[in-house]
Amino acid sequence: MLVTSRDPCVTPVGMAGDSELVARLLDGDDAAFATLVDTYHSTMKRVAAGYLGGAPTAVDEVVQETWMAVLKSLDRFEGRSSLKTWIFRILANRAITRAKRERRSVPMSAMGTLEEADQPALDPSLFDGSGMWTTPPVSWGTDPDRALMDGEIRRLVDEAVATLPDRQRTVITLRDLEGWSSTDVRNVLEISETNQRVLLHRARSKVRAALESYYRGRDD
Fold first, then answer.
1. Which of 21, 44, 90, 122 sits CB 3.0–4.6 Å from 16 for a disulfide?
2. What fold is seen in the domain 109-219?
3. Which CATH class is domain 8-102?
4. Is the Cβ–Cβ distance between 3 and 177 less than 8 Å?
5. DSSP calls for 63-95
6. Distance between CA atoms of 219 and 214, rounded to whole angstroms?
């Protein structure tokens, strides 16, 4: 894992428990809804951007439509999945519909075969004919997790993530920046474990390459 922010399991939403939170929302508890929005809104925008190619207006509209749909459909929430998964599936369905209508992107669930399956995860020039590193990876020091929380490094990671293809960016954002589990990501994006694993590996490899370049430049 590259960077982990907060653990979603210990957010106010998680602490309340889905059934309690839904009951409060159905009772018109504005504070409960505000907590829900504060917890998931920014992540919802990132996920929507993965389907819509980052178009700001479309992303904002899809997220707002999702929140309205959540409020209207709460009485039909049956608890067969987590509240988080349920909310993000509504988001994904609306984003897919918008993407198809505007032909902005290919839905996650329509991936079929991996679009990059025949591409190497790392630049082949990094290895010699026997498969050994031509130049070994630069050490990040004794505490890479602490280094990654440094402001400059976090900015570099964010910039590298922003340049990734939509699907890779969405998966690495949910897994490494938001701390989601593999199961939650698969359920929300409706992709297979293999697809998720390859997308995450390629995304992490590209971000790591950006960090490698940074450290090499700093050591020169």
1. 21
2. Arc Repressor Mutant, subunit A (1.10.10)
3. mainly alpha
4. yes
5. HHHHHHHHHHHGGG--SSS-HHHHHHHHHHHHH
6. 9
What is the domain partition of the chain in residue ranges? 8-102, 109-219
Parts of the chain with a pLDDT under 70: 1-16, 54, 104-150, 217-220
Cβ contacts of 81 within 8 Å, gap of 6 or more = 89, 187
- Give the torsion sign (CA, 15, 37, 169, 162): negative
Task: Give the whole-angstrom CA distance, residue 173 versus residue 198.
Answer: 14
Cα separation, 42 vs 63, in Å, equals 9
Q: CB-based contacts of 178: which residues, under 8 Å, 6+ apart?
A: 5, 8, 43
- Could you read off the pLDDT of 76-130 as tens digits, one per residue? 888 888 899 999 999 999 998 888 887 754 555 444 344 444 455 555 555 555 5
